[in-house]
Amino acid sequence: MRTCAQSKRLRRAGPSNFCPCSTLTSAGHPPLSGRGPWLYRWLMRSIWLIFGGLLAILLAVKFYPQQPANGLVASRPTPSLPIVLVSERRPARPTAEEVRRDSVVRYAMRQLGSPYLYAGISPASGFDCSGFVYFVFSHFGVPTPHSTALLIDVGRPVARADARPGDIVVFTGTAPTSTAPGHAGIVISARGETPLRFVHASSARRESGVKVSQVENSGYERRFMQVRRVL
C-alpha cells in the first residue's frame, strides 16, 4: 500500500499518478464541513414556510364568513333596538262647534227621568217633546219654537246619515196614517253611527218622560221625517 510520501512523489511525477487521499475521509466520503450550515438553513427555512402556511390557513378559516348551503353568506345577527312609534298626526283638538254640541247633549242627558207633561217646559213639572227641545236649546241661547209643527222648518235639513250630536230629529204623530210633524228629540249619536239614538220627552204609556230611544229597528223608523241642524 502506498504512503503519503509515495503519493507526493507520484503527484510530482504527473497528474495520472495523483493520490486523492488528501480529499477523502477515513470512510471514503467527502467531508461534511461545507454542507452542514447550508443544510441547517434549508431545513429551518422549510419549517418556517410550512408553519406560516398553516397559520394563514387557520386564520382564513376562522375569520372568513361561513357560507351556508344555499350559497348566501351568513350575516352576523345584529342586536335588536327598541322601536319607538311616533304618531304622524296628533289628535285634532275639538272645534268650538263640537264643544258646543257636546255641551248640549250633556245638558239634555241631565234631564233623564224628568216626567212627561203636555205643554211642559220645566224639569220640575215635566216636559212635552217640543218643550224639552225648547228648554235645552234656550239654556245655550239658541231659540227654538215650542211647537213640533214649527220645528220641521227650524235651521236647515241634513241627511239622516250625516246627523250629529245636538241636531233635532222630527217624526210624524203616532197615528199610522199621520204625515204631519208630531214628535221631536235631540240627536246624541256620533256622525255616521247606527242606530241613530236621540233623547226626548216621551208620552208613551210605558216608560214615559225623558229617555233615550233609537230610530232603527223601532216604531220611530216608520215615523221618521227629517233631521234639522240649528248649531
The overall pLDDT, averaged over residues, is 82
User: What is the name of the CATH class of the domain at 105-229?
Assistant: Alpha Beta
* Helix-strand makeup class: alpha+beta
Task: Please provide the ordered H/E string of secondary-structure elements.
Answer: HHHEEHHEEEEEHE
What is the CATH homology-level superfamily of the domain at 105-229? endopeptidase domain like (from Nostoc punctiforme)
Order the strands across the largest sheet as they lie in space. 3-8-4-5-6-7
> pLDDT below 50 for ≥5 consecutive residues: which ranges?
13-30
N-C termini distance: 147 Å
Number of helices: 6
CATH topology descriptor of the domain at 105-229: endopeptidase fold (from Nostoc punctiforme)
Strand content: 15-25%
* Shape, principal axes of CA atoms: rod-shaped
What does this structure look like?
The protein is α+β, with helices and mostly antiparallel strands. It has a domain at 105-229: endopeptidase fold (from Nostoc punctiforme), CATH 3.90.1720.10. 31% of the residues lie in helices and 16% in strands. It contains 6 helices and 8 strands; from the N terminus they run αααββααβββββαβ. The strands form 2 sheets. Strands 3-8-4-5-6-7 form a 6-stranded antiparallel sheet. The model is unreliable at 13-30 (pLDDT under 50).
Descriptive keywords:
6-stranded antiparallel sheet, rod-shaped, 231 residues, 31% helix, endopeptidase fold (from Nostoc punctiforme), 8 strands, 6 helices
Summarize the structure.
The chain has 231 residues and is an alpha+beta fold. The protein has helices at residues 4-13, 36-63, 96-109, 129-138, 148-151, 219-223; strands at residues 121-122, 126-127, 156-158, 168-172, 181-187, 197-202, 209-214, 224-229.
